[in-house]
Amino acid sequence: MNNEVKSYKFTVVDTETTGLSPYKGARLVEIAAVRLDEGLNIRLDRGFSTLINPKKPIPFQAYKIHKISDEMVKDAPTIEEVLPHFSKYVENTVFVAHNAPFDFKFIDYFYKKTGMNCPLIAVIDTLKLSRRIIPGLKSYSLDSLIQHFNIKLKINGSYRHRAIYDALHTAIIFKKLIEIESQRKGSLLLSDLVSYCY
C-alpha cells in the first residue's frame, strides 16, 4: 500500500437507504459508483447505478431525503441480485465515499449476510480527508464541499441525495483533495489517505 496514489484504481460510491443502520433493519434502496482509473481519470462512461428493492416499505423519513418511493423500487433487483455485479465493478479498487463508514457498513453487512467476499483493497473517507486537507471550513457536508469547490454539474434525471449525483460529486471532490495534497507533498502514497484496510 506504499505505492503512489495515481497508480491505483478507485471506486467512488454512494448509497441511499431506508434508515441509519443495517443492524437495526435498514436496507439499501440505491447504490451508485463512479470509477477513477490510474492517473485519477474520472470514467463517466463506466458508471454503476441501480435502484434496489429493499423488500420492505420505505419509511417516510427516508423518502423525504432521497425521494425514492416504494413504487420506484418495486420492480428493482434485490441486494442479493445486485451484489455480484457490484463486486465485479469494484474488484481490486479502493473504496471512496463521503462519510465512508456509513456507506461501507451497509455494503459490508450484505456481503457478510450473503456469504460473499469483499473484493476491495481499502477504504477512504472524503469527509475525514477534507477536514485534514482543507481545515477551517464551517461544515464538511457534501453540500458545503460542492459549494467550496464551486462544482456546478447537471445530471439528467438525478439530483442531490440520489446516489449517482452524490457519487459523481464526491469523485470530483476526491480528485481535487488529492491534487491539493499532492502539490503540498510532491508524491502521495495510498497509505497517506486510507481510513482503514478491509
What's the short version?
The chain is of the alpha/beta class. Helices cover 38% and strands 20% of the residues.
> What are the low-pLDDT stretches, counting only 5+ consecutive residues below 50?
none
Globally, the shape reads globular
Average residue pLDDT: 92
SS strand fraction: 15-25%
Number of helices: 7
The residue fraction in helices comes out at 25-40%
Side-by-side strand order of the widest sheet: 3-2-1-4-5-6
Number of strands: 6
Rg measurement, Å: 16 Å
State the secondary-structure class. Answer: alpha/beta
Question: What composes the largest sheet?
Answer: 6 strands, mixed
Element-by-element helix/strand order: EEEHHHEHEHHHE
The N- to C-terminal Cα distance equals 12 Å
What descriptors fit this protein?
alpha/beta; 198 residues; 38% helix; 6 strands; 7 helices; 6-stranded mixed β-sheet
Describe the structure.
This protein has helices at residues 60-66, 70-73, 79-90, 100-114, 126-133, 142-148, 163-185; strands at 10-17, 28-37, 41-51, 94-97, 122-125, 196-197. The chain is an alpha/beta fold and 198 residues long. Helix content is 38%, strand content 20%. The model has no long low-confidence stretch (mean pLDDT 92).
